[in-house]
Amino acid sequence: MTTTVDLPVKGMTCASCAKRVEKAVMAVSGIDSANVNLASDTVSISGDLNITAVSDAVNAAGYQLDFVTKQFKVKGMTCASCSGRVEKSLNALEGVLSATVNLASEQVTVAVSPKVTDGDLQQVVKSAGYELVIKSNTEKSAEQANSTAFYHRDSWSVIGAAVLTLPLALPMFAMLFGKDWMLAPVWQWILATPVQFYFGARFYKAGWHALKAFTGNMDLLVSIGTSAAYGLSLYLWLTFDGEHGSPHLYFESSAAVLTLVLLGKFLEKRAKKKTTSALQALENLKPTSATVKRNGQWQTLSASELQKGDVVKIRPGERVPSDGVVINGNSNVDEALISGESIPLNKSKGDKVTGGSVNLDGVLEVEASAVGSESTLSKIIRLVEQAQGAKAPVQALVDKISSFFVPAVLLFALLTVLVWGGIFNQWSQGIVYAVAVLVIACPCALGLATPAAIMAGTGTAARHGILVKDAVALESATHIDYVVFDKTGTLTEGKPVLIQSKAVKGSEADLLELAYALSEHSEHPLSQAIVNFAQENKVRLNDVVNFKVIAGSGVSGDLNGRTIIMGSSKWMKQLDLELPTELIEVEGASISWLAEMKEEGAELLGLLCFSDKPKTNALRAVQSLQRDGIKVAMITGDSHASAEYVAKQLGLDNYDAEVLPQGKAAAIEAYQAKGYKVAMVGDGINDAPALAQSDLGIAMATGTEVAVNASAITLMRGNPALVSSSLKLANATYQNIKQNLFWAFAFNTVGIPLAALGYLNPILAGAAMACSSVLVITNALRLQRMSL
Questions:
Q1: Domains in the chain and their CATH numbers?
Q2: Among the residues of 128-250, which ranges form H helices?
Q3: In this structure, which long-range contacts are made by residues 593-599, counting pairs with CB atoms below 8 Å and at least 24 apart in sequence?
Q4: How far apart are CA 671 and CA 484, in angstroms?
Q5: Long-range CB pairs of 665-673, under 8 A, 24+ apart, other chains included
Q6: Rounded Cα–Cα distance for residues 661 and 705 (Å)
Q7: In angstroms, rounded to a whole number, what is the distance separating the alpha carbons of residues 322 and 374?
Q8: Taking the CA atoms of the chain, what radius of gyration do you get in angstroms?
Q9: Which position among 486, 638, 683, 695 bears the catalytic label?
Q10: Helix axes of 427-440 and 395-418: crossing angle, nearest 10 degrees
Q11: How far is CA 318 from CA 95, 278, 306, 360, in A?
Q12: What angle do CA 730, 785, 396 make, to 5 degrees?
């Protein structure tokens, strides 16, 4: 849906900033135009707005949209028409950037400017006929306590209505066996009235709100339909002359329909809770207390009181209260519910631990590094909530249909009455058939079809260590036919080992000293391999001045008056150096060359060779993708020889080597130019541009924060096989959405004509309507049983 909105931007200072923001926003899929007003610090955007994608793009450019995202519970929604009404009312409020309602979770996610208060949002939703719930923890506890009373339970209305309806419905079945158990009209009225106006009051209340807002919803259809049956029964009873047996009343129809709809809503609510089970499981991981060292003494405090830098003691069986680093102790830690890793990991001094994981056997002392909302667990929960609250692109069609569906059904029901009454002179039957039309047409299943599947699918993904940013990412994943992996740390272990050093000039000991001095200041995996080797072999460390990182090429620095460089074969060739590759003893090794920069040019000093093995599951990951008809390539800044060696080992379809960071995005674009839908899998800062350029960015959470932020899917484990699992789950989720929409439309397409023609009485219509919602959610729950 094309919209135009002005978004506040923080951090802009000049025209250059404005251009960067415009360029970043225009790169977002679906955006038609972006114009920055530097005077008002806003960007005016037109197009198919995805506020999350725009925000990520602006953040990546170094700026920030000035808005906050909030989630609220909404009471009173029953169908897609309701959710559409809530969205429309919120989006019309000035300062609301976007509002997305998830009918399955009964929540709304709102992106608003800071000037918009919760009270403003609450008032707008109230005027639309619904309730936006803003609760404190105290209120939540009180509500939970009250909900234990039987008359507050969801089951009360179902049980009460069923008890009163049973004596009305039993005579219908008795007639099949020639028995006349029909109650007197007065008893039918006594039993039906509480069902209609007490247990069915919720439908009248919600239907009245819909009428006041000049819209329609499921409640309006149910209330009109059952009121028509109840009113017709009263009319026939009161006007009956008493001379020809008993009047034919429809009290049992109105009562049974209400009971079946209440039962359907009850079963639907229970089933919906299961779709959020993964999120609830994550919430349950949050520890409530922690043993903290304060003033030299161990104290038990609330986990919410933890501060960064606190030392925490974790005994066997306890949950780790926050992210941190082990400073004392040794133990196995279970991180299954966070990363999906089923095998416990051994943790000792210097290892990182994640809040929410379970300490199994030893005692650990951990220094807290991230607490509260900054912890990994809190970030995971936010991502899962964001994904489960997101709206899939296909939902736009459902929303459009829902906007005119209820009025169309009301018109069709009126035509049903007029045709049966005006043409066949059967006004009573016409009203009954119209009731069946109104009941079978309730668009509950239509509104649940998409969000139920997304909630179940993203929840299952989270349980296996796959975090999906939003529903757009799920849809993008279904079109992928080319997956491009980064090499180091993604397909390979990312822990290279120095296996050969060869001096071309001078001694090997001097070569290692120079390499060690330069590597000490670098975070590159090859540099870390040199540092590890040097420290193990007690190589002397010299001081370096003027140290520089040349992105994608290597490093340089001055040592004792000499300018030394260390880097890739490509860089050395650019300096016109001849490289004696015959000195390389290991096939497929990664190579770093050392040279000295002199006035007359560069002089080669020697080479270093590194081995970085493919991950044990890399071959299986590649083969799994290829079996699904997806081509697999690799992109790396490493040498052609090293890249070719790994490509052969893993059976890749293609590879690009010696690619500079800025060239990775261009390489992805080249694949896209050939017509492929490309997923990029990476874990480093250098991969961020390529992740953003790709049709689907997939980041390893074991890598950098920048890579994770630039991706649409995050893998909590450094397991490349999860890429195939992610794509399979996305396809299964979208297949499930299509099935749900088919059943939702099928019930109405088949049911409405049958009801209008008299082949479907109101009671069967009510049962079918209730079944349709439960069927849709039950189908979505199949995703939770997927094995990845």
A1: 2-145 (3.30.70.100), 286-377 (2.70.150.10), 467-493+614-728 (3.40.50.1000), 497-611 (3.40.1110.10)
A2: 137-146, 154-175, 185-194, 201-212, 218-238
A3: 593/566, 593/567, 593/568, 593/569, 594/511, 594/514, 594/515, 594/564, 594/565, 594/566, 595/564, 595/565, 595/566, 596/562, 596/563, 596/564, 596/565, 597/556, 597/563, 597/564, 597/565
A4: 9
A5: 665/689, 665/690, 665/692, 665/693, 667/484, 667/635, 668/484, 668/635, 668/693, 668/694, 669/693, 671/482, 671/484, 671/633
A6: 17
A7: 9
A8: 33
A9: 486
A10: 170
A11: 45, 21, 16, 8
A12: 35
Per DSSP, the chain holds a count of helices (H) and strands (E) of 27, 30
- 334 has catalytic annotation: no
3-class secondary-structure state, position 98: strand
- CB under 8 Å to 34, separation ≥6 — which residues? 21, 22, 25, 26, 43, 44, 45, 46
Whose structure tokens read 């025209």? 15
Q: Which of 332, 458, 330, 323 is nearest to 392 (CA)?
A: 458
Among 342, 338, 344, 311, CA closest to 326: 311
- Tokens representing 232 are 């017709």
The whole-angstrom separation of Cα 321 and Cα 364 is 12
Angle between helix axes 218-238 and 395-418 (nearest 10 degrees) is: 10
Q: Is 598 helix (H, G, I), strand (E, B) or coil?
A: strand
| CA–CA dist 362, 342 (Å, integer) | 19
User: Quick one: tokens of 746?
Assistant: 């099928």
Rounded average pLDDT per 10-residue block, the chain, 788 residues: 76 80 85 83 82 80 83 87 89 86 87 87 91 65 47 78 93 74 90 96 88 82 93 91 74 92 86 77 85 90 90 93 94 82 85 91 93 84 77 76 85 95 93 93 82 90 88 90 92 90 93 95 89 94 92 89 93 92 86 93 94 92 96 90 91 92 89 96 80 90 62 88 95 94 88 93 88 90 87
Beta strand segments in 386-486, E: 466-468, 482-486
What's the confidence (pLDDT) of residue 558?
95
Q: Mark 549-578 as b/e (b = at least 16 C-beta within 10 Å).
A: beebbbbbbbbeeeebbbbbbbbbeeeebe
Distance, in Å, from the CA atom of 284 to the CA atom of 466, rounded to the nearest integer, reads 19
List the structure tokens of 589: 């090794």
Determine contact, residues 342/335, Cβ cutoff 8 Å. no
Distances (CA, A) of 553 to 570, 593, 683: 8, 11, 19
Sequence-distant (6+) residues with CB within 8 A of 80 are 103, 398, 399, 401, 402, 405, 443, 446, 447
What pLDDT does residue 502 have?
Answer: 94
3-state secondary structure 539-583: CCCCCCEEEEEECCCEEEEEECCEEEEEECHHHHHHCCCCCCHHH
Task: Count CA within 13 A, CB hemisphere, residue 771.
Answer: 12
User: In 34-136, which residue ranges form alpha helices assigned H by DSSP?
Assistant: 51-60, 80-91, 118-127
> What are the residues whose beta carbons fall under 8 Å from the beta carbon of 578, sequence distance 6 or more?
604
Instruction: Please tell me the distance from the alpha carbon of residue 621 to that of residue 725, in angstroms, as a whole number.
Output: 9
